């Protein structure tokens, strides 16, 4: 497992996202209310660029005509066939056990720590003053 | 549906040229039609606009799942709606998928469904000229389908005759929702023209005819509207068969596009079973209905069937015939299929060649 | 299979008594409606989906001496009850009361047909059971009729036509489903159209055979409507029986409905399970006609694609001409399904049938007949 520095934290504000290329893979990094999550940018269904999809809420219902809206921005809808995935877990809503997108551990590290290594920074310089998003894969 | 399976299949890719039977070109805006319309119809378009049997001016009766009915990543960076930018279509679709031939189907706007029939005919002609000028001439991989004002057979035959001289037209487009079941005599001149010019009929999901969308009235949801695409194909094929269209036009080729195909075997069994019992009512259909379907009908693969037991997809195609399936992507619409990943089972090389290229060459008479 | 089926004492879930003519119904109408029917010369209310002379409407030997499809009580007893050793036969009377535009006239006729069935059929052989006819144009009147007749345990189901005014899942019908659920009655949806709407989304077909072929599509639309509108979320104990649907369209329907659900479920968030699961728990299908190729092994393959052994309910569909000779069970129906289709599934579906028999004796008899071990 290698830890990759993918962005300064400030670059991905809450509700934001960044698609990064790490070790030949496209990975979407999402900020959900200050927590960061990383998902492979490929839908397990037909390979669509999942991480380019809309960030939506989760709508549930206990009976017809009732719409219970929750967790705004925490679901991802594939830009192709509209399958919904939970950004926190990578699980699809319709088939959470069998259909899920690959997730990667994400950490926030201070620039000071990163200077000590061993990390692979991408194409930007790391500064001691800032915090960084680090994806492990 | 693990990632591993997908990765392997992606690497394999589709090595041969693909014939994609369903690509939707879009107008950048309605203005793009003006050069192809007479002054009279330019005024009609600008003053009264497009009018179909639909409650809204600028939306569908059942609002779609996505803006412009499209995949969210298909909006051209240079502007305009999905499907309106040839350069971006090449870059996003034709090149990476190795599309050898892409057959255009102009779904929107629909000349056939215009409430003003004369305007509808003019619109069809304009869309046909637009396909040649803006798509097939600059991009030889693309071929066009002749849009016709199908409710007016005489005008349709004239339009087919006008266009068929241009070899860039490889089929005749009709949307599923016609004002009468398509097998009716009033449409037969169209079939005769198709047969005469050697052009297959591409019957594509869609259209609005003012009929309730179900035999029990109007449903509520896009979920139902979208799935009804597969339902509308069934009475349509029943009508073509039982009215004797295939018997009368044995050279006619029909491609059923964007209705899926899972329904086809059960429909054929049902047709045969009840035809056998009631054939005195349809003496003009001397052979089992399934035999005509087997002989003269092709099925486009999209939206692909996804049975939980993946091998059932192969069983299904065994029932229809591997020589009857033609690949279609439906680019840029949201429910499109990726030629490399749509099939969740491995096809043999022969099957791959047939489905992705050779069957379409036969159905459309492509060289 | 003939002998085995008889030995099981099957439950025939779709039998059609001859449709009563107005003269037969007059005694069951109140004086006002009797006067209306006679005074306006109203008769001929057989459903147009089944023209009396059409080969489908009755097998050649199943016409009465007057040519009437289905003959009479004696013929039905002989050809259905005796022939197959039927334990119960559920009578579905295909009468135009279901298609009447006038709510009040429809309700009066439905009431008369139900009372006629009770008196002329149920009272005359204890093996008969029946469905309750209603007029779906008026859910309130339909519920009143369901409640009135449901006190008689021999009525085991509410009957609706496959195509009426508005899709069957819509909330307009929910009063009917609420009553059915409350009273433990499945809702049977029978092939046929009230012809209040064109038979297809492409307009009116030309031929009887075309109409009938298109019925399978009607069932697909209606099943989708029931799922999409959340009927089974709202009424979790409701069972729907698709009667005379053709059966073999179902697997592909379920594949596609599940695919559509994965894409579009947030539009109908109350559909909180896949259509495959919903159908497995809530929907049953009568067996005849089973639209399948003649080769038994091919039917067997399609039956496996249904994905559950609980779905099919034995039916002869008497007097409709769906099968020849003694092939009431289609060749190719897997052996293991025999007792399920013939007895166990119908009994689980029509809970009123089981309720009329002491548990103990059923158990003993089932063991004796080899239905359960």
Low-confidence stretches of chain B: 1-12
Report the count of strand segments of chain A.
11
The strand line-up of the biggest sheet of chain B is 1-2-3-4-5-6-7-8
CATH superfamily of chain B: Metal-dependent hydrolases
Secondary-structure element pattern of chain A, one letter each: EEEEEEEEEHEE
How many H/I helices of chain A? 1
Structural summary, described in words:
The complex is a heterotrimer of chains A (137), B (367) and C (373). Chain A has one helix and eleven strands, in the order βββββββββαββ. Chain A has 137 residues and is mainly β. Chain A has one domain: Rieske [2Fe-2S] iron-sulphur domain (Rieske Iron-sulfur Protein). The model of chain A has no long low-confidence stretch (mean pLDDT 93). Chain B has 367 residues and is an alpha/beta fold. In chain B, 39% of the residues lie in helices and 11% in strands. In chain B, helix 4 links the parallel strand 2 and strand 3. Helix content of chain C is 42%, strand content 11%. In chain C, helix 5 packs parallel to helix 6 and helix 6 runs parallel beside helix 7. The mean pLDDT of chain C is 95. Classes of the chains: A mainly beta (137), B alpha/beta (367), C alpha/beta (373). Chains in contact: A-B, A-C, B-C. Chains A and C meet through strand 5 of A and helix 9 and helix 10 of C.
């Amino acid at each position: 497992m290698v830890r990759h520095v993918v962005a300064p934290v400030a670059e991905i504000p809450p509700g934001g996202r960044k698609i990064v290329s790490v070790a030949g893979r496209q990975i979407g990094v999402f900020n959900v209310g200050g927590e960061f999550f990383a998902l492979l940018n490929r839908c397990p269904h037909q390979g669509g660029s999942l991480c380019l999809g809309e960030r939506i809420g989760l709508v549930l219902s206990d009976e017809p005509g009732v719409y219970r809206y929750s967790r705004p921005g925490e679901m991802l809808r594939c830009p192709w066939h509209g399958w919904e995935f939970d950004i926190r877990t990578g699980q699809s809503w319709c088939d959470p056990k069998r259909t899920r997108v690959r997730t990667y551990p994400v950490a926030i590290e201070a620039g000071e720590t990163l200077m000590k290594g061993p990390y692979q920074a991408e194409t930007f310089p790391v500064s001691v003053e800032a915090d960084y998003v680090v994806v492990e894969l | 549906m693990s990632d591993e399976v997908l990765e392997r299949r992606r690497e394999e890719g589709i090595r041969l040229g693909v014939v994609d039977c369903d690509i939707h070109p879009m107008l950048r805006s309605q203005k793009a039609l003006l050069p192809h319309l007479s002054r009279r119809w330019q005024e009609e378009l600008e003053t009264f606009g497009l009018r179909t049997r639909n409650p809204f001016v600028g939306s569908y009766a059942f609002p779609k799942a996505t803006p412009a009915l499209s995949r969210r990543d298909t909006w051209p960076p240079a502007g305009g709606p999905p499907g309106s930018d040839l350069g971006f279509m090449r870059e996003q679709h034709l090149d990476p998928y190795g599309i050898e031939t892409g057959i255009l189907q102009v779904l929107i706007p629909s000349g056939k469904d215009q409430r003003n029939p004369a305007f509808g005919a003019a619109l069809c002609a304009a869309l046909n000229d637009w396909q040649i000028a803006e798509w097939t001439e600059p991009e030889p991989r693309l071929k066009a389908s002749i849009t016709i004002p199908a409710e007016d057979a005489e005008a349709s035959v004239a339009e087919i005759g006008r266009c068929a001289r241009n070899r860039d037209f490889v089929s005749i487009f009709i949307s599923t929702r016609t004002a009468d079941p398509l097998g009716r005599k009033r449409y037969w001149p169209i079939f005769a023209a198709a047969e005469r010019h050697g052009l297959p009929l591409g019957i594509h999901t869609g259209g609005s005819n003012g009929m309730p969308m179900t035999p029990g009235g109007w449903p509520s949801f896009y979920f139902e509207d979208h799935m009804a695409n597969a339902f509308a194909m069934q009475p349509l094929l029943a009508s073509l068969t039982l009215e004797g269209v295939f018997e009368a036009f044995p050279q006619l080729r029909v491609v059923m596009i964007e209705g899926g195909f899972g329904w086809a075997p059960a429909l054929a069994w049902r047709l045969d079973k009840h035809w056998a019992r009631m054939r005195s009512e349809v003496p003009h259909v001397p052979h089992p209905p399934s035999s005509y379907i087997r002989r003269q009908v092709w099925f486009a693969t999209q939206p692909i069937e996804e049975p939980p037991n993946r091998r059932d997809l192969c069983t299904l195609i065994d029932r229809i015939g591997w020589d009857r399936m033609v690949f279609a992507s439906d680019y840029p619409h949201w429910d499109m299929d990726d030629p490399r990943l749509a099939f969740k089972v491995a096809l043999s090389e022969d099957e791959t060649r047939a489905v992705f290229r050779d069957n379409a060459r036969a159905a459309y008479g492509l060289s | 299979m003939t002998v085995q089926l008889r030995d099981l004492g099957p439950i025939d879930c779709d039998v059609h008594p001859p449709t009563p003519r107005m003269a037969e119904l007059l005694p069951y109408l109140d004086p006002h409606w009797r006067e209306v029917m006679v005074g306006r010369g109203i008769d001929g209310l057989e459903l147009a989906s089944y023209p009396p002379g059409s080969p489908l409407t009755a097998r050649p030997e199943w016409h009465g001496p007057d040519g009437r499809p289905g003959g009479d009580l004696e013929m039905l007893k002989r050809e259905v009850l005796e022939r197959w050793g039927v334990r119960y036969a559920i009578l579905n009377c295909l009468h135009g009361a279901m298609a009447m535009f006038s709510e009040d006239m429809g309700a009066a006729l439905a009431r008369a047909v139900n009372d006629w069935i009770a008196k002329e059929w149920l009272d005359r052989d204890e093996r008969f059971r029946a469905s309750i006819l209603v007029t779906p144009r008026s859910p309130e009147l339909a519920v009143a009729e369901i409640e009135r007749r449901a006190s008689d345990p021999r009525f085991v189901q509410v009957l609706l036509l496959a195509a009426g005014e508005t899709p069957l899942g819509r909330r307009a019908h929910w009063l009917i489903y609420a009553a059915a659920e409350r009273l433990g009655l499945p809702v049977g949806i029978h092939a046929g159209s009230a012809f209040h709407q064109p038979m297809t989304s492409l307009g009116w077909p030309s031929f009887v055979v075309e109409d009938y072929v298109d019925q399978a599509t009607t069932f697909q639309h209606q099943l989708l409507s029931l799922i999409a509108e959340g009927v089974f979320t709202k009424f979790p104990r409701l069972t729907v029986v698709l009667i005379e649907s053709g059966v073999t369209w179902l697997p592909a329907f379920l594949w596609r409905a599940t695919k559509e659900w994965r894409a579009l479920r947030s539009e109908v968030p109350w559909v909180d399970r896949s259509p495959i699961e919903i159908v497995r728990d809530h929907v049953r299908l009568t067996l005849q006609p089973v639209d399948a190729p003649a080769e038994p092994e091919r039917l067997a393959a399609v039956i496996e694609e249904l994905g559950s052994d609980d779905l099919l309910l034995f039916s002869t569909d008497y007097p409709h001409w769906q099968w020849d000779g003694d092939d009431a069970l289609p060749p190719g129906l897997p052996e293991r399904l025999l007792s399920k289709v013939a007895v166990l599934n119908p009994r689980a579906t029509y809970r009123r049938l089981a309720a009329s028999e002491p548990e103990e004796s059923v158990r003993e008899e089932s063991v004796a007949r080899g239905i359960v071990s």
